[in-house]
Amino acid sequence: SPGFPMAINTWGGPFTAATDAAFLALARNNVSALDAVELGCTTCERNQCDGSVGFGGSPDENCETTLDAMIMDGRSMKSGAVAGLRRVKNAIAVARHVLDHTTHTLLAGDLATEFAVQSGFPAENLTTDASADRCRAWRDAGCQPNYRVAVSPDAGTSCGPYTPLPVRDGLAARHQASHDTISIMTIARDGSMAAGTTTNGASHKVPGRVGDGPITGSGSYVDSDVGACGATGDGDIMMRFLPCYQAVENMRRGMDPTAAAEDAVRRMVAKYPQVASGLVVVNNKGEHGGAGSGWTFTYAYRGGCMKETRVVSVPPV
Ligand code: SD4
Hints:
α9 crosses α10. With 317 residues, this protein is α+β, with helices and mostly antiparallel strands. The protein has helices spanning 16-29, 33-47, 91-101, 109-118, 129-140, 146-151, 171-177, 235-238, 243-252, 257-271, and strands spanning 6-10, 67-73, 79-85, 106-108, 182-187, 193-199, 220-223, 227-233, 277-283, 288-293, 297-303, 310-314. The two termini are 23 Å apart. N-hydroxy-L-asparagine binds at residues 175, 180-181, 199, 201-202, 211-213, 232-235.
């Protein structure tokens, strides 16, 4: 353990800006664990980390970007989330607003947008030239909307995430090219913990698709008595396993963070050998580990007196 306070999240590269932002807010300004999670996620939403977080990424079949986010407090176990959020950029802040100002856990779609706008969040266009181009290229390549593939299997090859592709040239390769989703966990000086996730989901998804990101126990999970977990990967598969809940419960029963993460990943791989997944896990002492499948997963952390963020590379199980 690097010591407290601490911030730890999925992926290195551009995602380390979130690690640094969360850690420095904890270390210098003594913000709460929840505030640090929100700040870390907001940093990636603003920076459009790798195009997979925030506006202008992962356009759906209609070329629209929608956002999924959740934030969780490890002491109260309160969780707030938004799914399929449209036209609002700061999804993690809307999730926080759900946590702080309602008795609910998850708001979805247009009505989540309405809640956000009524709460004072600006409604903005989430499409950028880059995301419009990406969508156009996908259509120009002859890719059919996914629902048509379902109606007629011969309607053409789908470039969406729903047609099984060989591991090497398919999902894993797609994910390898671009890291996805930030899930971040924080430990404040007093040992309180929080976790959160924000993402623009999967490219060329069926409009209305919600991923694992906003699902408590899937996108992330935290119990200050035990520890926390953050996830990234093929959410359509991962959310069937609640892997972050699994990893935290594994630690509750005595596993160390690495073993807890590996067990949760192996449960998914046993049923879906092709799944691209990554879990980063930290216990309430700050000991950490990760596991992944289908790609080389990386995570970033900074804690205690560390002068800079360190990135850990995790080979697939
Ligand atoms: C999703 N989990 O919506 C997200 C995307 C992701 O690596 O993390 N990809 O499925």
